[in-house]
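Instructor's aside before we start: the two examples that follow are unrelated to each other. I chose them only because their records fit on one page, so don't look for a connection. First example below.
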Amino acid sequence: MTARSTMASSGAEHSSAPEATFTSLALPMLIEHFGERYNCHALELGPGIAANVSFLTGFCSRLSVEDLHRTLCTLGEPYSGQRRLYCPLFQALLPHSAQAPFDLVLLWNLLDYLDHEDIRRLSEHLATLATRGTLLYAMVSTRTRICASPPDYKILDSANLMRIANTPQECDGPRHSQVRLLEQMRGFRVKRSFLLRNGMQEYLFEKV
């Protein structure tokens, strides 16, 4: 199935500043999708930023937080530094609960910091935590250079995000193609994708 892609009409251009705001096109879709139901169970794989927790609990009855990248980095090499992450421990870090599958998983830009094999392992495990129709929100960079460690993303309101860089250092970006991502994320399809003016591609993956 061919996903629809839309270029954002607004949003900040790429900036090396530690903080930059931009408009998300996927976030309003998530709010509309889950807005009428308060039984949404969400998994936040970024840091538990207070503003994000407050926003998400506005339409999610349950929210689980696991700052996956930082957790992996505490394990030491080969999980940190300039090397790509390779970790078979997703099942231990994200325990499976068949009685409480997640309706929404927020990956943010985690995929830019995992190697291809790790993306496959993570998506396979997330599939066990999901049910048909579960949505995965992710963003990947289309640029050749990215921050050496994942920036944080703060939800400002229903359509705007703030990117907060944690380091001025950069590294080569993987520039994931949609075809390659779908090869690694079997069991999910691209529901929508949006190319933003700041060089980020937003994805809403759906469990099939």
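Example two begins here.
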Amino acid sequence: MKNLKNNLKNKIDNCYLLEGEDYYLYEKAFNMIKKAVNLQLDDFNLQIFDDDNFSLQQVLDSCEVLPMGSDFRIVVLKNISKISEKDKKCIENYVNNCVKSTILIIFDYFNKFLNFKNATFISCKRFDKLTASSVILNEFKKRNKKISQEAIDTLLEYCDGYLTRIMNEIDKLCFYNLDEQLVTKKIVDQMVTKDDDYVVFELTEALGKKNNDLALKILSSIVKEQGVLGMITNHFRRLFFISISGLENKELAELLSVKEYAIKKQREQLLNFSKIQLKKIYSLLEEIDFKIKNGEMLQETALYYLVISILYI
């Protein structure tokens, strides 16, 4: 992604494969390619296929159409979640002998085209903290605003590093006080809602460090939200599997059907828990699940029971 702009100046490839978890980067890469080929007459020269209208034959037919009033035509496969191996092979065969005036762009959020040959790969994974911070600073500069480093760090944490969400929050932060040029951590705290995954991560950190007051404070803020127990349960189950597995982050992410970034972040939390503790927590989760399904415990009661039990494991 970082090198795409320079690469496009030197060469336009006929197939680009975009993979990763930050959707803002998909749109950014697409717009960069579109600008580089100077696409004209979008209604004729741009066709997008998703789950609603995907058809292998229609995709191939569209790729064969010559552009009108433009040097190139763009065909987009946008986050196809269901595709057969046979269809993937047919698309790959097309790429090996493609129409030179057609640019095929594959948005592969669901990782259906892994190891796709003869495509130019573009990583749309979340940026590292330094790069993401630079992007945020630049966005504030465009709006004639400033933001403190502490506020940037907080914004990244609350949005779990996703520029997709951060971009929406930036507009809100910039319009919060038009008379004040600097956006501070206090303003971010007031205006930005923490990502659910971040809240669960924050709760797990507090539990691991036996910070009783903070753990209960976080729990009280989310205890009535739908699906919280499931998120906490999944988080601890993944922690347990990570602790007993010798697999690399990428392999674990594929096995557990989560993003590699999530595994990386959770592996950091293993410092706060022993394998014995995680095994006991895993057993506790099974006990709570059984009691809920048998009507012996309500969700809110289960959450408090779970958190207080973990604090004393």
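The chain has 16 helices and seven strands.
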